[in-house]
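User: I'm putting together notes for a lab meeting next week and I want to include a structural view of one of the chains we've been expressing. I don't have a solved structure, so I'd like a prediction I can at least talk through. The sequence is below, exactly as it appears in our construct file.
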Amino acid sequence: MSPTPTGRLFRTDTGSDLVLSRTFRAPAEDVWASITESDRTALWFGPWEGEAASGRTVKVQMVFEEQMPWCEMRIDACDPPRRLALSMTDESGAWRLELSLLETDGSTELRLVQHLVSEDGIGEIGPGWEYYLDMLVAAREGSPKPDFTDYYPLMKGYFDELSTS
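Assistant: Thanks for the context. Below is the predicted structure for the 165-residue chain, given as structure tokens.
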């Protein structure tokens, strides 16, 4: 499998936004469930536990990463079924993410935006998001899960070039 990178980079007043999207033939409420219900996020990212609400922090297990680490993720905004904003800090730095859904004519576009303070490491970050979004697609379709080796390092050059253009 040779997936095609879809990520785009937009410069902002505070840094850059890395934007990736996928479209599903499903209502926004169903796609929302895939990104917010623990048993469904477990299929493509990892399960989470805790009391989910804006301003709260939940624990998320990244089951498709080595050693399946748990991390704390703050819910900065939750506006079902349209917008979810999250933040977390790990050894790689601060992660600020937004997932937004737009339903049109029976299809829903999911946009994942990572707000970047620096574009350092985008060659590693971008392929990771492409992989996770395709994991979401596979989970929703019941199709085989993608293999991360099809994404990295093959997509690294594409994302590195985004930061130099």
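A couple of points you could mention at the meeting. The chain has a mean pLDDT of 96. Helices lie at 28-36, 38-41, 122-141, 156-164.

User: Perfect, that's what I needed.
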